[in-house]
Write a structure and sequence with these properties.
By secondary structure, this protein is of the alpha/beta class. It folds into 6 domains: 3-124, no CATH class; 163-225, no CATH class; 229-303 and 316-347, no CATH class; 359-446, Beta-Lactamase; 453-667, Rossmann fold (3-Layer(aba) Sandwich); 684-809, no CATH class. Strand 4 (361-366) and strand 5 (372-377) form a beta hairpin. The N and C termini lie far apart (92 Å). Residues 188-227 form the PilB3-like N-terminal domain. Residues 409-602 form the Bacterial type II secretion system protein E domain. One of its GO terms (molecular function) is ATP hydrolysis activity. Residues 658-724 form the PilB3-like C-terminal domain.
Length: 840
């Protein structure tokens, strides 16, 4: 093309011709302002309009219009060329010329004489144009074959995930574990039928987890992705591991024994780098490959003569043949991979270290030699992983776990129950003496940050009404047992409801494996200890700790689990007025009664009535999903001597058909609390409703972090009026930082650990139930607190209450606190408010 330029060139040529040409007919100024020559077109022998198509006087305007039209046509043509896809029947040779042959003005190339060079398609294609169709067909077949190879040799990742972003650190660098490592983590034969379901980091930037669904096997697969090590790097690691065992012995013992995990990691890092520098494996290595250096280290290959002068390091060693994946030197990334692997193996949990970092995993188990590791995932339940141990490695790993737990394991004592340094429980078995499949282990993960009552409500394990009932019962010193099968959530519930214990109460916990975590500072945490010898001398069991607890004057005893004869002592303690919370293995209330009142525990039926409540929990399925539900909350009322039976009554019951909880009748426990506190029925209902409102507010506002929930519950127990005023005005969230400052409660949660806790969101039904409770409170309970003003909440409190709670209420300005009656349906008579320091 380029026609507009041609027109412009013609016009310029004609205008520069003084003696003739078409445009010479126009008058021009001569030098010295000579008169313009004009031409009488009528005097010519021919008619110019016949040849021009217009009168000569109109010709300049016609040329200008033509130029403008040519420019517009040029732009439109260029847009069409650019917008045309390179597809059959759409892309023409003219498109090709514009892209690869013409210059930017649309002119073809020219030779030295200015002659346009002809267009030769074959010179561009490399083959005759008539072969195009056949070649495209062959290329399409080849592309399909390549696509099939890609499909077989790469994993099917989620296309919605931005992998560049996922495998990047916060400062934009690539993570140590990346897409390459993901491909290496999945065996070639499984790539085609593995489809990604979910991925998340467990130890960024070193380890992530990808959950796949196997189309072929119709099951989920848990895949750990860590930095892949080639054979050379693996041999370097093996060599350094042996050298580190010796080097660490002579390093800073204080850092290894008394230092933090970071201090110990620094020792491993510094010693590793020292060894790498000593053997010129980083920075100082010249032309020698890593393979050659380690052939010499391991005395592989021919002997090499050394000069009389001692050569330092490995740089003087012979140059071997370069093999695949031998980069010649250890790059920075390779060094970081080595450091991660060494720190993981020396200080962490070796091959399962990434799994130990996964807060979504409840249990980790390996069932024997040549068996993969299985995990119990909170979302996907029992899932097989890509992690496994060889026979020797599994034996060594189990021995290491026992040693790190302060236990010994051997063929003479092949089974050990242990508590790992992070608080997780482990059952370890060594060898084939008691297990046909050989060495095995099961680890029950310890939660650094416990779940809360709000989590149990959001999971629908308990209803709002049930949780408010348990709150009022525990706050008023009612004893409770959580019973159920394995993994039914007993300990989780025990930890959660422990937040209802008033912070001004003394608590003693008794466990064989540390699982209970409480925010209350007046808490003695007792743990059993086996004897150091083969006899029982020096053994401290639950029975001993219970006896010691009586001399510590506790108001609450939290016992991790009742298993044997210590249960009899526990009920004796209950009968003396000590409130007890514990767990027990039994699937029903009848089974609880039977096991406690028969050997080996053998609690008398008259003493059993010292227990107030039994919560039966179960792990079941709802709409195909495995869930945990509280089946019943049962009251233990009294012993019927005439019929020799214990009278019990279900207060709440779970309905499997509708997945709902029903309240079955009036509660004797609540009536006893009403009598003990001197309340009337309306006051009792008001107190119960207040607690439902607090729980509903936390659910509806998505305030479910441990610190948020613990601070709110403990602040309410200490000063319910202040918290209700904050709820009424919607200011609770703004005041949480102040509420956490209670001196009797230590709420010090690592934000990073809290951030990875898989806390559930409420389902629509739970959120609607919470909203309905708040709507009721908005027209009744909140009216009293919302309308108060003129003076501070602190000024309205009694002097001794102010002194006790000054820490948590500092800086909280609120409205006045009168005693106006509450509106129906929750009514408190005027003057019935207690101001004598009792907890409401």
């Amino acid at each position: 093309m380029g026609y507009s330029a041609d027109v412009e060139r013609i016009v310029e040529t004609e205008q520069s011709d003084d003696d003739g040409g078409v445009l010479g007919a126009f008058g021009r100024k001569t030098t010295d302002d000579a008169p313009v020559r004009t031409r009488d077109w009528a005097a010519t022998e021919f008619s110019p309009a016949t040849y021009l198509g217009c009168h000569p006087d109109e010709f300049p305007a016609r040329v200008g219009h033509a130029k403008a039209n040519a420019n517009r046509l040029y732009d439109q043509y260029a847009e069409w060329i650019a917008a045309t896809p390179v597809t059959k029947d759409a892309y023409t040779w003219e498109h090709f010329k514009w892209e690869y042959h013409y210059d930017e003005d649309g002119h073809p190339p020219s030779d030295g004489d200015g002659t346009a060079e002809p267009f030769d398609p074959e010179s561009f294609l490399g083959f005759p144009p008539e072969e195009m169709e056949d070649r495209l067909t062959r290329a399409s077949d080849f592309a399909a074959a390549v696509d099939d190879i890609v499909d077989r040799r790469t994993v099917n990742v989620n296309p919605e995930i931005d992998e560049d972003s996922f495998f990047s650190t916060h400062d934009g660098l690539t993570t140590l574990a990346n897409r390459y490592d993901l491909e290496k983590a999945v065996p070639m034969e499984k790539k085609r039928h593995f489809v990604e379901v979910e991925r998340y980091w467990v130890n960024k930037p070193y380890a992530c987890v990808v959950v796949f669904h196997s189309i072929k096997e119709n099951e989920k697969k848990y895949t750990v992705v860590e930095p892949y090590m080639n054979d050379i790097e693996a041999r370097v690691k093996e060599y350094l591991t042996g050298r580190l065992r010796t080097a660490v012995k002579y390093s800073d013992e204080d850092a290894l024994i008394d230092g933090s995990e970071a201090d110990r990691a620094d020792v491993i890092r510094s010693e590793t780098l020292r060894l790498l520098d000593q053997y010129d494996l980083r920075d100082g290595v010249r032309d020698d490959s890593v393979v050659g250096q380690f052939k010499d280290l391991f005395d592989i290959g021919e002997a090499v003569e050394r000069s009389d002068r001692e050569l330092q390091g490995l740089a003087a060693r012979p140059e071997p043949a370069v093999i695949e994946e031998d980069a010649g030197t250890l790059t920075e990334a390779q060094v970081e991979r080595l450091l991660y692997e060494l720190q993981r193996d020396f200080l962490g949990y070796e091959r399962i270290d990434a799994i130990k970092h996964d807060v979504n995993v409840e249990d980790i188990s390996c069932d024997g030699y040549d068996s993969p590791v299985f995990v119990y995932h909170t979302e996907y339940e029992n899932v097989i992983t890509n992690v496994s141990h060889d026979e020797t490695g599994l034996d060594n790993f189990v021995v290491k776990l026992a040693q790190r737990s302060g236990k010994g394991i051997s063929k003479r004592r092949p089974q050990v129950d242990a508590t790992l340094p992070d608080g997780s429980r482990a059952q370890l078995t060594l060898g084939r003496e008691v297990s046909d499949h050989g060495t095995n282990y099961t680890i029950r993960q310890f939660k650094d940050v416990p779940f809360t009552p709000i989590d149990l409500i959001n999971w629908n394990t308990f209803s709002l009404e049930e949780m408010a009932f348990l709150w009022l019962a525990i706050e008023n010193n009612r004893s409770l047992i959580f019973a159920g099968g394995t993994a039914s959530g007993k300990t989780t519930s025990l930890n959660a409801v422990s937040l209802f214990i008033p912070s001004n109460s003394k608590i003693v916990s008794i466990e064989d494996t540390r699982e209970v975590e409480l925010p209350q500072r007046n808490w003695v945490a007792s743990v059993t200890r086996p004897s150091f010898g083969e006899d029982d001398v020096g053994d401290v069991d639950e029975f001993d700790l219970l006896e010691a607890a009586l001399r510590q004057r506790p108001e609450f005893i939290v016992m991790g689990e009742v298993r044997g004869e210590e249960g009899r002592t526990l009920f004796q303690i209950m009968s003396t007025g000590h409130t007890t919370l514990t767990t027990f293995h039994a699937d029903s209330v009848g089974e609880v009664l039977k096991r406690f009142t028969t050997d080996p525990i053998n609690v008398s039926k008259t003493m059993f009535t010292g227990l107030d409540l039994v919560s039966i929990q179960t792990q079941t399925r709802v709409q195909g999903r495995k869930v945990r539900r509280n089946k019943t909350i049962t009251e233990v009322n009294h012993y019927d001597a005439e019929n020799d039976e214990i009278n019990i009554r279900d207060i709440f019951e779970w309905q499997p058909e509708s997945d709902e909880f029903l309240q079955l009748g009036r509660s004797n426990t609540l009536q006893e609390i009403q009598f003990d506190r001197g309340w009337d029925h309306d006051r009792l209902q008001t107190e119960l409703f207040k607690r439902k409102v607090v729980l509903a507010y936390l659910v509806d506002s998505d305030l479910n972090d441990y610190a948020e929930v613990a601070a709110t519950l403990q602040a309410f127990i200490n000063d319910p009026e202040a918290i209700l005023a904050l709820l009424a005005r919607g200011e609770l969230g703004e005041s949480l930082s102040d509420l956490r400052e209670m001196e009797s409660v230590e709420i010090d949660i690592d934000p990073e650990k809290e951030a990875v806790v898989p806390r559930p969101d409420p389902d629509p039904e739970t959120r609607q139930a919470a909203r309905e409770i708040l709507d009721t409170a908005d027209g009744t309970l909140f009216e009293e607190y919302r309308d108060r003003d003129a003076f501070s909440l602190m000024d309205a409190l009694p002097e001794h209450a102010r002194a006790k709670g000054a820490e948590i209420r500092s800086g909280l300005a609120a409205d006045g606190m009168g005693t106006a009656p509450l509106a129906d349906p929750v009514v408190v008579e005027q003057g019935d408010e207690r101001t004598d320091g009792d907890t409401e």
